[in-house]
Amino acid sequence: MNDITMKLVCDDLLLMALKEDISSEDISTQAVMPEYQKGEVQLICKEDGVIAGLGVFKRVFELLDENTQVEFYVKDGDAVSNKQLLATVTGDIRVLLSGERTALNYLQRMSGIATYTKKVASLLEGTKTKLLDTRKTTPNMRIFEKYAVKQGGGNNHRYNLSDCVMLKDNHIGAAGGVAKAVKMAREYISFVTKIEVECENLDMVREAVEAGADIIMLDNMTDDMMREAVKIIDGRALTECSGNVTAENIKRITDIGVDFVSSGALTHSSPILDVSLKNLHAI
Questions:
Q1: So which residues are the catalytic ones?
Q2: Domain 121-268 in this protein, CATH class
Q3: pLDDT in tens, 5-63
Q4: Which architecture characterizes domain 3-117+271-282 according to CATH?
Q5: pTM of the predicted model, to two decimals?
Q6: How far apart are CA 178 and CA 206, in angstroms?
């Protein structure tokens, strides 16, 4: 996540999180540290995983005091291990204390997603199928969570509703059928925008491919149905498998031949990676 993105998109979200945690003042910190005192604290990993969100972690402290310094010993996407020293943060002790929980919340959440994504993505190694995330993200956390997926070796599906047409069951019902929905969408969108159609059965697959859909999602289909759908599509559209895909069941999909598999679990069910700020002292 580069500095421009951080300042243009992320800063407002980070400030909202800080304001949620500090509505008026940090009374605990003010009680024990009423005046400026320079100090440092260590960022330590407490379990094995993949780290992600280091720039976000740093930016939280910088928003409280631009003079805060963070020295990293790892980079986003790196494998990290229990008890590993990840960084040293130096600055006003009041800032280190007040920003600690918000900075760690982002880093733990993003690293947990990267860790779980890496686990799932590794199960697809050696196949043509690529792992995708979904829009099942935490409100106001999407940019961070989708970034974490990429750091774990996954790929991003559409970022939001403006990116790509996805005609789901209710869109199709509103339009009056698959072919009509695709036709209406094609007439409305720019020529550079792709259309994806969610299909629940093989008749819908046939209709979608004949209507000229760019991507066909095979939603909650059995393995045999997906194999037949891939044959029907025959390369005329990209294929995506979706529906309760997790690390425990993704292996069954690897020999079906779909182009993509999407998993909401990457962002809505990943446990955090435990990291901590320890050994704070004045310098």
A1: 136
A2: alpha beta
A3: 888 999 999 999 999 999 999 999 999 999 999 999 999 999 999 999 999 999 999 99
A4: Alpha-Beta Complex (3.90)
A5: 0.95
A6: 10
